[in-house]
Amino acid sequence: MTSPNTDYLKNQQYSDSSRLQARARLHANYNRNPYNWFKWMFDLYDLPPDAKVLEVGAGAGWLWMQNADRIPNGWDITLSDFSSGMLAEQRQNTSQIPHSFQFQEIDVQAIPYPEQSFDGVIANHMLYHVPDRAKGIRELRRVLKPSGKLYTATNGDQHLQELHQLMTRLKIKKESYLGGFTTVHAYTLENATNQLKAVFEHVELHRYDDAINLTEAQPLIDYIHSFPVELDAEHEQDAKAFIEGEIQKHGAFKITKDTGVLIAY
Length: 265
Ligand SMILES: C[S@@+](CC[C@H](N)C(=O)[O-])C[C@H]1O[C@@H](n2cnc3c(N)ncnc32)[C@H](O)[C@@H]1O
Description:
By secondary structure, the chain is α/β, with parallel strands linked by helices. It has a single domain (4-158, 180-211, 257-264), classed as Vaccinia Virus protein VP39 (Rossmann fold, 3-Layer(aba) Sandwich). Helix content is 39%, strand content 20%. The chain has helices spanning 4-13, 18-30, 37-44, 62-66, 84-94, 133-143, 161-169, 174-178, 192-196, 218-225, 233-250, and strands spanning 52-56, 76-81, 101-105, 118-123, 144-155, 203-208, 211-214, 253-256, 259-264. The strands form 2 sheets. It has a 7-stranded mixed sheet. Helix 2 packs antiparallel against helix 10. The two termini are 25 Å apart.
């Protein structure tokens, strides 16, 4: 299944990782939790030493770059994405890692592997984009061995709520600034368990404890620009003034983060 969002996501938002990088910078530089998110996720992966692993919607391959020094030698890893630009970046970014990877262009709604191919499947911050998510989740279960595990990261309802409040102050509607992202609330830490339970018997939820303490306005402005919104000069000025006012008053503009991983098996 495709949707009007699919073209936008594949050919604009994720044609390469530049927009994703603008958002990652906000997290990387102002997070309260000093323990890296990708390392925290990797700690959860409980897979055999000779595991066959598939990552769908792997983006630029950051998970593997951040854990390059501890990838088990015996893992047979396939990285994938439905964007050819992201696949090119995965190849480039993982070329320095002393482990070999396979790469494949895959839409999670139709995974081109036989049943029971993998011990572990990873789907981080991507299922909320998928038009026929129920089919995507069935596909993930189908390619997992009966003993296999799905690791899927997503956000909670409160994630970045201060950003959304700021956009409301600026009178910019969610539909206009989120564009292809309006579906993010369809798969959250609150509602993903029920969706996964359609095909998995057990689902465990692990939350990552974090928040953003922003001490300058620009990273949040760059974050907003990574969405399809046309933030005109006047709105940008208003946003900056508000954020800087909060920083002056409180020492930092505090932004709620709510993100985590569901393990399904
Ligand atoms: C927010 S990014 C997350 C990237 C990566 N998993 C990470 O955590 O850094 C979402 C990724 O999912 C990919 N994607 C979106 N819809 C997809 C689909 N239907 N099938 C496969 N990949 C998809 C996008 O191209 C993008 O690379």
